[in-house]
Amino acid sequence: MATDIAEEIKNLDATLTGIETVLDLDGLRRRADELEREAADPELWSDQERAQSVTRRLSGVRGDLARVGGLRRRLDDLVTALDLGDEDLLAEASADLAPLGREIAALEVRTLLSGEYDERDAIVQLSAGAGGVDAADWTAMLLRMYLRWAERNGYTTEVFDTSEAEEAGLKSATFHVKAPYAYGTLRSEHGVHRLVRISPFDNQSRRQTSFAGIEITPVVDQSDDVDIDDKDLRIDIFRSSGPGGQGVNTTDSAVRITHLPTNIVVTCQNERSQLQNKAAAMIVLKGKLLERRRAEEAAEKQRLTGGPQDASFGSQIRSYVLHPYQMVKDLRTGHETGNTSAVLDGDIDDFIDAEIRWRRQADRD
Predict the structure, then answer these.
(1) N or C: which end of the chain has fewer CB within 10 A?
(2) CB of 286 closer than 8 Å to CB of 256
């Protein structure tokens, strides 16, 4: 047993050493010092947006250092147990190898996020596709899935807009994931997601296939220089609908912004203040324009994120089957699971990790 444990520890040590090299721990420590000095500036909080950005980045850097340090200490403890040769310690070491290996593998995936905007926050927009009321219900289910995923990972989210469908579910929803590398982590979720189930809205209990489209865009940073001419915007103010309290629903506070040159339309209605809704809508619009520019500069041969998705048969990236069997399968990576209830409750990290590895390999090819 000791020989097998020694070999596994050797492999984990090699992987963790590679991670430490890629992350550049000395550079991370210097970055933490810089951000701490910036956070200590008494003038920082005069600019709330900048202050929140600094504190989020500092929290992320500190988290990375703590995570790597914790894994290294646990690995060193295993080496010590192996050197002592105590059977009880070896048994404990053997029990910790599997979870430690999973955590190191998850951190290794993070090191693969090296795209231009991967370290940014993410804006996620969901839209009901083909499938009628089932598609609207599916969109609401996906919103819950992603919000639960963020909650599981300790990420802060802010819902900017939800547009309710007439009978049930949502026509669309937009929310902000506030976490380091949220965009890089989620960007392969962009695409069409397909649900197959017995429709709860069909009085004959027939099987129904429905679709929802997901768009992922990065949040714009002050250094991005995304200039928008006011003359290129059409801003419509209207009364909010759906849940949100009396103050939200009885005032003309909802904002719809149309960017005329690109015909990109964004809406925000979940805040009480018209100014807050406008600010949130501008965050989404700038993110869409930034992603559009990134796609154009890279000359990518794909539909731009700001455009409509063909949320129907033949275009899905992942299928969620609840009947006649239980399975969620990603059609690009081949990753699948029969535990559909866990996935719909936000347990999608394995799918996301597989996507990141798949995307990195595709970029190399």
Answers:
(1) C
(2) no
Domains of the chain: 2-110 (1.20.58.410), 120-365 (3.30.70.1660)
Tokens describing residue 326: 């239980």
Chain centroid to Cα 201, Å, comes to 30
320, 337 in Cβ contact below 8 A?
no
Beta-bridged to residue 125, according to DSSP, are 174, 215
Place of tokens 């849940």: 243
Q: What stretch of H or E contains 265?
A: strand 264-268
Model pLDDT for residues 199-216, shown as the tens digit of each residue: 999 888 899 999 999 999
Whole-prediction pTM: 0.76
What is the dihedral sign for C-alpha 270, 272, 273, 274?
positive
Torsion sign (Cα): 57, 343, 212, 160: negative
What length does the chain have?
Answer: 365
Burial of 277 (0-12, 13-18, 19+ CB in 10 A): buried
Beta bridge partner(s), residue 127 = 172, 213
Measured over the CA atoms of residue 271, residue 119, residue 68 and residue 105, the dihedral's sign is positive
Point out which residues pair with 208 in neighbouring strands: 197
Q: How many CB atoms lie within 10 A of CB 289?
A: 22
* Residue whose pair of structure tokens reads 């951000």 in the numeric block: 35
Cα–Cα dist 216/218, whole Å: 7
DSSP state for residue 42 in the 8-state scheme: T
CB 338, CB 324: distance < 8 Å = no
Q: Is the N-terminal amide bond of 180 cis, ω within 30° of 0?
A: no
Q: Please give the structure tokens belonging to residue 107.
A: 């951190």
Residue identified by tokens 């018209």 is 274
Alpha carbon 56 to its chain centroid, in Å, reads: 16
Query: pLDDT digits over 48-99, tens only?
Result: 777 877 887 888 889 889 999 999 999 998 888 888 877 787 787 778 888 9
Question: Rounded to an integer, what is the distance from CA 244 to the centroid of its chain?
Answer: 24
Distances (CA, A) of 157 to 74, 127, 149, 173, 226: 31, 18, 10, 13, 23
